[in-house]
Amino acid sequence: MNRKEIIAVVDYLEKEFNCRICHAPDKGLSFFAELCSAHLNKYCDCAKRSGADKRRHCVNFDNRDAVEWGKIHHAAFAKICPYGLMEISAPIQFQQQNFGLLHAGPFRKPDTLREQDLMARRQIPLDELAALKKTMPVLTPERRKHLEPLLAMLAQAVAVLAAGNQEVAAKQIGPKEFIRHYINTNFRSQIGLVDIALKLDWCEAHASRQIKALFGIPFNELLNQARLENACLLLMESNYQVCNIALWSGFHDPQYFHRIFRKQFGCTPKEYRTNQRVSITPGPPRPEAPR
């Protein structure tokens, strides 16, 4: 599906389901100006205008909790934001690369949710939205079954376009920045030196020498740096279990994760989380990862 066809599908979905299509966060999609990166509708505008604190809850839920949920399920799901609005969201993913989520909505909150759906734990009553909610479009279960595969197909097409654009742009800035970009984009997956070599048309031995010359450390250390950085961020800013944080950071062996973490920081992941939070006031609860 090319750019023109993607825009045509967006127009069709917005008219057919009385909704807006947008993406969040803006991860490698800035080149696609026709695809909105903000929730441009009267419901979200009303919520965000009511204060910076309320806007922060909305942005955190979309850009952090919902994105992580999409990485777990790899399929379209419904999300209920902190203000009780529903959107259907589909991960924008292609070949181990993640570009955020594609959203369709908002819709009136349904009476029941599915197991794969996500609801913000902190629901914030907003009087300004009470009247607007009564006029919000309803997405019936039958209509949802029609929307979800179409949105997932659209998200896949956007991801393919974004991946091609991103790889071309990265290669134009030289091998060092391309390697850094590729690792930062794919560290959650089981990538290896051979993947870098194939992308740059190098043999593995040459790739190994070049990475050591460019970064001063071997490929595995460079990859683990990116994974540990992500693990540290999740330890500080989420309530997810350590075993899940290890998995989402690219460590599929929990024992190896604990060993390399202790070697790098001199403490266990749980000790690191406790130490980093000593002077931090706890924020609102975040959704727990599925056990």
Oligomer state of the chains in this structure: single chain
How many strands? Answer: 5
Radius of gyration: 21 Å
SS-based class: alpha+beta
Continuous helix count: 12
Descriptive keywords:
disordered C terminus; 11% strand; 12 helices
Helices and strands in order:
Layout: H1 3-17, E1 20-24, H2 42-49, H3 52-73, E2 77-80, E3 86-94, E4 97-107, E5 118-119, H4 127-134, H5 141-171, H6 175-186, H7 193-199, H8 204-215, H9 219-237, H10 242-248, H11 254-265, H12 269-276
Parallel strand pairs: 2-5
Antiparallel strand pairs: 1-4, 2-3, 3-4
Structural notes for this entry:
- This protein is of the alpha+beta class.
- Helices cover 55% and strands 11% of the residues.
- The protein has helices spanning 3-17, 42-49, 52-73, 127-134, 141-171, 175-186, 193-199, 204-215, 219-237, 242-248, 254-265, 269-276, and strands at 20-24, 77-80, 86-94, 97-107, 118-119.
- A five-stranded mixed sheet has the order 1-4-3-2-5, with helices on both faces.
- A hairpin with a 2-residue loop joins strand 3 and strand 4 (97-107).
- Helix 1 runs antiparallel to helix 5, helix 2 (42-49) runs antiparallel to helix 4 and helix 7 (193-199) packs across helix 8 (204-215).
- The longest helix has 31 residues, at 141-171.
- It is globular.
- Mean pLDDT is 82; it is low at 279-291.
